Amino acid sequence: MIEKNHNIAVLEMGAGEKGDIKHLCSLVQPDYGIITSIAEAHLESFGSKENIIKTKMELFDFIEKKKGCIFINIDDPLIVKASKHYTQAKKIFFPNNLYKQKENGELLLEIENTKTKKNFKTSIIGKHNFTNLMGAITAAKEFGISEEEIIKSIEKFQMVSGRMELWKNIENNNEIIWDCYNANKASMLAGLKTAKKSYHKNKIAILGDMREIGISSKEQHKEIIEFAQENFTELFLIGEEFYSLKKIFPSTKIHYFKNIEDFKNQKYLNYKNSLFFVKSSFGTGLYNERNFFRKIFFKI
């Protein structure tokens, strides 16, 4: 609930088709805006990648007219290109050279201030989330929030349920990256690239179908299998889209299942010293099976 004594409201806008962001802007009347990335999500309803770009940029279009402030992710060439024509809005770019990701051999992000050489740890995993974090820090500083306050907030921050959560079991040295709220090719590849950096000897990917990605669905699922089979010791693929590629990718390390129930009815090894990366679109049903995964792979 936004009260009269609040100075800042941070609101997330989602879209399923062209015009959704424009409509939300008419209700919210934003003065500042961040677009973290542009990916091929919900292609079935958007119709094309160009429509996704146009819809995302409806936020910046609105703020341009208000002469507000837009935060531009310079690591995303689509956002950079689409933002060039704005002249009325204040432009702030992120990430910048003040912060860098410190390589510590762990999945959790550790950030270094390149000026002060001070480090701070997070409960966030994934290189792609480093960019998101830099966007949040950049916006906070624009509002006059001190670095000390920012670091305190980041160190306390916990990932939202179903989005790159990291579960650990000390007894069998198993870890699970739980990312089952949503999926598209970009986020799936980003998660797989994060998981493959784990020190664990066994890296196992459990992937459900990516939904609502349109006519290129088969090709996008093929790309995911090609990357995963090269970088993971074992794959469990769940859903009709993945199952339809069984004959194209025959392998003893890949296990195919038409649905979540077929997957749950299998017998599983007593895994130890293993990392499991679990990701899918919400519609596959994996999101609701966290207790099953804890029982099977954590033995709790």
Structural overview:
- This protein has 300 residues and is of the alpha/beta class.
- The chain has three domains: 1-94, 3-Layer(aba) Sandwich (UDP-N-acetylmuramoyl-L-alanine:D-glutamate ligase), CATH 3.40.1190.10; 98-158, no CATH class; 165-298, Mur ligase, C-terminal domain (Protein-Tyrosine Phosphatase, Chain A).
- Helix content is 36%, strand content 21%.
- It has a six-stranded mixed β-sheet, with helices on both faces.
- α8 runs parallel beside α9.
- The two termini are 38 Å apart.
Would you count the extended β strands for me? 12
Number of individual domains:
3
Task: Provide a count of the helices.
Answer: 12
Specify the CATH homologous superfamily of the largest domain: Mur ligase, C-terminal domain
Helical content, roughly?
Answer: 25-40%
Short description:
The chain is of the alpha/beta class. It has helices at residues 20-28, 43-46, 49-56, 58-66, 77-83, 127-142, 147-156, 185-195, 217-231, 240-243, 260-264, 290-298; strands spanning 32-35, 69-73, 90-94, 99-101, 108-113, 119-125, 165-169, 174-179, 202-208, 234-238, 254-257, 274-279. The chain is globular and about 60 Å long.
Helix-strand layout with pairing:
Layout: H1 20-28, E1 32-35, H2 43-46, H3 49-56, H4 58-66, E2 69-73, H5 77-83, E3 90-94, E4 99-101, E5 108-113, E6 119-125, H6 127-142, H7 147-156, E7 165-169, E8 174-179, H8 185-195, E9 202-208, H9 217-231, E10 234-238, H10 240-243, E11 254-257, H11 260-264, E12 274-279, H12 290-298
Parallel strand pairs: 1-2, 2-3, 8-12, 9-10, 9-12, 10-11
Antiparallel strand pairs: 4-5, 5-6, 7-8
